[in-house]
Amino acid sequence: MSVETMTLERAQQLLQTYYGYPDFRDGQKKIVLSLLEGNDTLGIMPTGGGKSICYQIPALMLPGLTLVVSPLISLMKDQVDALTAMGIQAAYINSTLSGKEVNERIRAARRGELKLLYVAPERLEVDWFRDEMGNLSISCVAVDEAHCVSQWGHDFRTSYLAVAPFVQSLPQRPIVAAFTATATPEVTEDMVRLLRLEEPEVFVTGLSRDNLAMSVLRGENKREFVLKYAAAHSHQPGIIYAATRKDVDDLYERLRSAGIASGRYHAGMTDEERAASQEAFLYDDIRVMVATNAFGMGIDKSNVRYVIHFNMPKNMEAYIQEAGRAGRDGEPSQCILLFSAQDIMTQKFLIEQNPQDGDRKANDYRKLQQMVDYCYTTRCLRSAMLDYFGEEHEDKSCGICSSCTDERELTDMTIDAQKIFSCIHRMRERFGISMVASVLKGSRNKKVLQYRFDGLSTYGTMADRTEKEISEIINVMVSEGYLMLSEGQYPVLKLQPLAAEVLKGQRRVMQRMPAKSAEETIGARSRSGRKHDYSQSAVNETIFEQLRLIRRELAGREHVPS
Ligand code: ADP
Ligand code: MG
Ligand code: ZN
Asked: Helicase ATP-binding domain: from which residue to which, for each copy (predicted)?
């Protein structure tokens, strides 16, 4: 029998004995073995994937102590209680303890009575603590929620930068293990660099959670939707995320008046209020938690049946982290994002409010646009998500997301697309969505008239639609890669090679339009909703004339976007 097989058997035995689980999950096995071989290891696994066991089992098998760096004091107690209940020697040290209690735990560690010690990253900056740790035999430092070390992530914590110097200060370098659910290249690079991982083994597993049905709903009356949905699912645990405290409070009040057992969570509440609220949710005293993104990091509640986003989050990482709190038990669950164009304004405002350098700002805007693209895509949402995170996957539809279950037929949008693209071309690719939409609408708006766009031959070619509809279509075209928005606060529409193909008549645009309404998408799918047959749209004579001209111009150009 090879050493590896023996190690694995022993690990499996411990898993069975302590946790009562018959086998490791995908990914866990590799991470456990990598650590036991003594490698620095980076484990990237979705929320609920089972990262804790990846360092807890090695902790039982390695000599000495495993120090766990964990960001939330509120969760340490739960985690440690769970471990001690299973008979594993574990403790935590944090600011909720008295000096006497801290000393007791340090002494226990000295006597070799602890396998796992949980601390917050701030603790690593404390001199006496560092000295104490230097006297112990530490085999492994496990960094949980390791993306907190990166400013590219969504929960940057300065004190995570103290991990690497702390590790270096130890007389003997332990194995460093880092865990997160955030998988983007920038964050991965930062974790390796800032935690100073040495030749790390990196394992990325399964962001795709087949039990999650992803939906994006545009054009909803959001408040009404939330109330109706929560009422219809009042027997199931759910989380509703809103961007502001004001919205949290408002939704919370409404849900309560509607007789739905709900709680709330945001940074404006006291620690006690938040802890009470969290506990009520964990123990099912309340069904619905209305919260800002302050709620949830590391929370292990497995039976959350739905996560509704009242607002679009700032980027895909944040979205997946939050939405991923649904269905950790593997049962079918819903992740619903309620999108409105106002959400984009809010996020831009927040980016502008945040003092930071130009690069970072540009990055925030880029990520925001990727989030918006997700909201407007008509592709399978799961595929879109996996593509974003660069995870390889079969090229097939999930069958359960709001794109896959959209029963409205595809309509031929080619003519609308051509009108839009020629307008952008005529306006020399120097304007943003709302201006282009106003021109196509034929708006009498002063700004439009002032630029003399009324003399433009594409002016008013889409007068049969509202400006909002036109903006929607443009956004879909951006999301589908026909158009690009330049970076920055006032993005400008640029034509992409795909748009050139459409203008040249080499490609047809098939879409489901306009925005679906919630009743159509969720639940009453059979109802014949309002349908708009766009292929019947009045075709403006001038557009053909336009197209002929543009095609001729394009023929002389190498490629369209400059
Ligand atoms: P993460 O930190 O990745 O979000 P956790 O470590 O909190 O996830 O684990 C999520 C849940 O999955 C926990 O309830 C845990 O007990 C369970 N779990 C982990 N590994 C296994 C396994 N091999 N078999 C069954 N359940 C597991
Ligand atoms: Mg965790
Ligand atoms: Zn799908």
From this structure: 32-201
